[in-house]
Structure formats: C-alpha cells, structure tokens
Design goal:
Length: 60
C-alpha cells in the first residue's frame, strides 16, 4: 500500500492520501466485515449439506 501523509506545521500527521485502488480494497474489506458481523448468529451447515443443497438447486 503506497501511502502519503499530510502533516501540520508541527510535523503531526493530519491526513492520509491513498491510491484509489487501495481505498476501494479497504472499503471492500469493511463491507465484508459488516456482512460477517450481520451473519454471526445465523446457524451454520456442514460442507456436505451445502453441497447437497447446491446440487439440488442445480448449481453444481
């Protein structure tokens, strides 16, 4: 990640400049974490059950 900082007269970092690609990746990561948090209480299923459901739906 290529970053640049904006500093004040005292040398204190006040802002950051990111490449758009890096910024978009960070936004995607935040979105993924939000989805995980929303689904944390959902019941889980086994891999075998998932495969069975996907086959029944014609997805694999």
């Amino acid at each position: 990640m290529d970053t640049q900082f904006i500093i004040d007269e005292s040398g204190v970092k006040k802002a950051i400049i990111l490449l758009m690609e890096d910024y978009e990746e960070l936004l995607e990561d935040i979105h993924d974490l939000a989805v995980i948090a929303e689904r944390k209480d959902e019941p889980s299923i086994s891999l075998d059950e998932l495969k069975k459901r996907l086959k029944a739906d014609g997805l694999i």
